[in-house]
Write a structure and sequence with these properties.
- The complex is a heterodimer.
- Chain A is of the alpha/beta class.
- Chain A has twelve helices and eight strands.
- Chain A has helices at 33-58, 72-81, 95-100, 105-112, 136-150, 169-180, 200-203, 228-243, 273-280, 284-294, 300-323, 342-360, and strands at residues 13-14, 87-89, 157-162, 185-191, 194-195, 198-199, 220-224, 249-254.
- In chain A, helix 6 (169-180) links the parallel strand 3 and strand 4 (185-191).
- Chain B folds into two domains: 2-184, Thiamin diphosphate (ThDP)-binding fold, Pyr/PP domains (Rossmann fold); 197-325, 3-Layer(aba) Sandwich (Rossmann fold), CATH 3.40.50.
- Chain B has a seven-stranded mixed sheet with strand order 3-2-4-5-7-6-12, with helices on both faces. Chain B has a five-stranded mixed sheet with strand order 9-11-10-13-14, with helices on both faces.
- In chain B, helix 3 runs parallel beside helix 4 and helix 9 packs across helix 10 (270-282).
- Chain B is globular.
- The chains are: A alpha/beta, B alpha/beta.
- The interface between A and B is large, with 49 and 39 residues.
- Bound molecules: thiamine diphosphate and magnesium ion (MG).
- Thiamine diphosphate sits between chains A (93, 132-134, 162-165, 190, 192, 194-196, 257, 261) and B (29, 58, 60, 82, 86, 89).
Chain lengths: 362, 326
């Protein structure tokens, strides 16, 4: 019996606005001006907020954090493509997108200053808190999507994770689950080239990360993740597919982590300055600004005004963050369980007694 | 003899064990060129290369599962879990395979692996980076759990763990990683696993602790001794499973009073087991109820509040004083 080919797979790559600002007009999602401006502002806010956090961290005013500089296009354009009803399920490198989803920056700072209060989020948001455990959130996304389908809600779930996350079992389990039940999940892999010190080529022997979805028969694409227009277009299409009951989609967004893994990391131990310098030339903000200028809706004057307004906004958020002093010492006892229990309350009393004695004895 | 901090002492142990036995290999996330996020594998990748210092893909279950397979085939793998908070992802491999392989095959197959991981709080780390879950691992029969407290015993215990024929979860108190230096002999040194150490002898009360709590415990003991002239015996458990109950039972038979200090939450901790064993072995020698100074049964606090929850020198001191006064 001759062996015959039964299946064929391929992976394509999409780029709409390249690093030099050249546009493929056929693929341009032709966003209205106000959306384009909102996207640019979102990316600029993400960048500026990151820079401010680095400052605050160096001054000891917040703790360790994972900078997002260079990756703004992914989470911001995805946030723009989402409706309020869609779910934003992040890891820890989506600052710009989170702020566009109206998560207050001051709360983000509270979290990074070591207080769980920063996770409380805003009122009605469908934005899940930080997920530090790599890849775990991909399964939560599949679960949320199952619930949306079950409840017949028109809502998709956009979940973010890194290149490193694709090595975890949870990631594969999530893809499989979402595909088996045809769930409205948009898997967005922020391939930033590195998982701490492990380069993408050593993380997996696969030639692309996009192809991992093929094993689960999930439609997949690789895009230039620094091209906000490509991110927008693909996330939007994937959300629509989800709404139409066509199941999950996968997007490998190639970007680059321009700064350290976290502020506790020293990237010079494992990558060259040359590589980083080169990557700065691909900055997602630069090409987007040029695109706006080419459309005649942007100039230096507007840029200066935007910078000033962002600075004021961030100053104000930092002020709110620093004015927050109402953290209860015993807050950890409040939410161990949904109801109070004598044994925990006895420990709370013990905790207070210990704190009082501590203060008393200096 | 060189003065080393705990990180350097652990590196020394691995280096010497790798020199001694070509079956020893290291595997973990970022342990190669990056030398581990705490630099515990500093210089080892440079010295032993890719094949013996394996920078793994990002997958904890894979680190432990492949370690088990390597051990089946004669290697002596030493896996690193980057922070103990991520160790829960490999628990299925540890519990279902590593812990019981010897038992279910009557010794035909064994899993002599070491799983190293930094644990504990007090270093202003991110969420999931400050847990103390030694009791979780100690609850798996067949798994040995070791926690050093100083550079010298860290080196000697890690070398012993690597030579041990059973799976060892080796938890490193990261708060003590660079907190102090100690003379560590150049020649390989071993501390037998399964033995506690009497750190100082005393007649009036026994304090039992381990890991990062040893430093504040010793500080509190010294203060009480100075202020009250009390004579206090101090025991460092070093191995949490299997427990060296003989050492602490004999001690408490002598002193009649005991305080156990534990960084982990209170419920079902190692302290609970120590007290149960003392109840069985030394009850009629007790002159006061045994006290435990522990964290509380709350989710490990993020760093903004952690120091209010982790036992402090003051709390340990009060625990000792109250037990002396009862
Ligand atoms: C389960 C788990 N293992 C290990 C870590 C430690 N860690 C945090 S981020 C990271 C690398 C993640 O790489 P990637 O998925 O590419 O995301 P990136 O950091 O590049 O955004 C590692 C190993 C973790 N947080 N969770
Ligand atoms: Mg990455």
């Amino acid at each position: 019996m001759p062996q015959k080919e039964i299946l064929q797979f391929s992976v394509s790559r999409l780029e709409i606005l390249d690093a030099e600002g050249n546009l493929d007009a056929d693929l341009d999602p032709r966003l209205p001006d106000e959306k384009l401006l909102a996207l640019y502002r979102g990316m600029k806010v993400g960048r500026a907020a990151d820079a401010r956090m680095l400052n605050l961290q160096r001054q000891g005013r917040i703790g360790t954090f994972a900078p997002c500089t260079g990756q703004e296009a992914v989470s911001c354009a995805a946030a723009l493509a989402m409706s309020e009803n869609d779910w934003f399920v992040g890891a820890f490198r989506e600052l710009g997108g989170r702020l566009m989803r109206n998560e207050p920056f001051w709360q983000y700072l509270v979290y990074h200053n070591g207080f769980e209060e920063g996770n409380a989020g805003h009122e009605s948001g469908r934005t899940l808190p930080f997920s530090v455990i790599v890849a775990a959130q991909t399964l939560h996304a599949a679960g949320v999507a199952y619930a949306m389908k079950y409840k017949n809600e028109k809502a998709a779930v956009v979940v973010f994770f890194g290149d490193g996350a694709t090595s975890e079992g949870d990631f594969h389990e999530a893809l499989n689950f979402a595909s088996v039940y045809k769930l409205p999940v948009v898997f967005v892999c922020q391939n930033n080239g590195w998982a701490i010190s492990i380069p993408r080529e050593k993380q997996t022997n696969s030639r692309s990360l996009a192809q991992k979805a093929l094993a689960y028969d999930i439609p997949t694409v690789q895009i230039d993740g620094n091209d906000a227009l490509a991110v927008y277009r693909e996330v939007r299409r994937a959300i629509e597919r989800g709404y139409e009951g066509q199941g999950p989609s996968f997007i490998e967004a190639e970007t680059y982590r321009l700064l350290m893994h976290t502020t506790a990391d020293d990237p010079r131990k494992y990558r060259t300055d040359d590589e980083v310098e080169c990557a700065w030339k691909n900055c997602p903000l630069v090409r987007f600004k040029r695109y706006l200028e080419d459309r005649g809706i942007w100039n230096d004057e507007r840029e200066a005004a935007l910078d000033e307004s962002i600075k004021q906004e961030i100053d104000e958020q930092v002020r709110i963050f620093e004015s927050r002093r109402d953290f209860k010492n015993d807050a950890l006892f409040d939410n161990v369980y949904s109801t109070r229990h004598a044994i925990i309350e006895e420990q709370r009393a013990m905790f207070h007694e210990n704190l009082t004695l501590e203060r008393h004895n200096g | 003899m060189a003065k080393l901090n705990m990180v350097q002492a652990l590196t020394l142990a691995m280096d010497q064990e790798m020199e001694r036995d070509p079956a020893v290999v290291l595997l973990g996330e970022d342990i190669g060129p990056d030398e581990g996020v705490f630099r515990v594998t500093a210089g080892l990748w440079q010295k032993y290369g890719d094949e013996r210092v394996i920078d793994t893909p990002l997958a904890e279950s894979a680190i432990v599962g492949t370690s088990i397979g390597m051990a089946f085939a004669g290697l002596r793998p030493v896996g690193e879990i980057q922070f103990s908070g991520f160790s829960m992802l490999m628990v299925a491999q540890l519990e279902a395979y590593a812990s019981r392989t010897r038992s279910r095959t009557f010794g035909r197959w064994t899993a002599p692996i070491v799983i190293r991981m930094p644990y504990g709080g007090g270093v202003r780390a991110m969420e999931h980076h400050s847990e103390s879950r030694e009791a979780t691992f100690a609850h798996f029969p067949g798994v040995k759990v070791v926690i050093p407290s100083s550079p010298r015993n860290a080196r000697a215990l890690l070398a012993a763990a690597i030579r041990d024929d059973d799976p060892v979860v080796f938890m490193e108190p990261k708060r003590s990683y660079r907190a102090f230096k100690e003379e560590v002999p150049d020649e390989p040194e071993l501390i037998p696993i399964g033995r506690a150490q009497v750190v100082q002898e005393g007649a009036d009360l026994t304090v039992i602790s381990w890991g990062a709590m040893m430093r504040p415990t010793l500080e509190a003991v010294e203060m009480v001794q100075l202020e009250r002239g009390a004579s206090i015996e101090v025991i460092d458990l070093l191995t949490l499973a299997p427990l060296d109950h003989t050492t602490f039972v004999e001690s408490v038979k002598k002193t009649g009073r005991c305080v156990v200090v534990q960084e982990a939450p209170r419920n079902l901790g190692i302290a609970s087991e120590v007290i149960a064993l003392l109840n069985e072995g030394a009850f009629f020698h007790l002159e006061a109820p045994i006290r435990r100074v522990t964290n509380y049964d709350v989710i490990t606090p993020y760093f903004g509040r952690e120091l209010m929850y982790i036992p402090s020198v003051g709390r340990i001191k009060r625990g000792i004083e109250e037990t002396l006064d009862t």
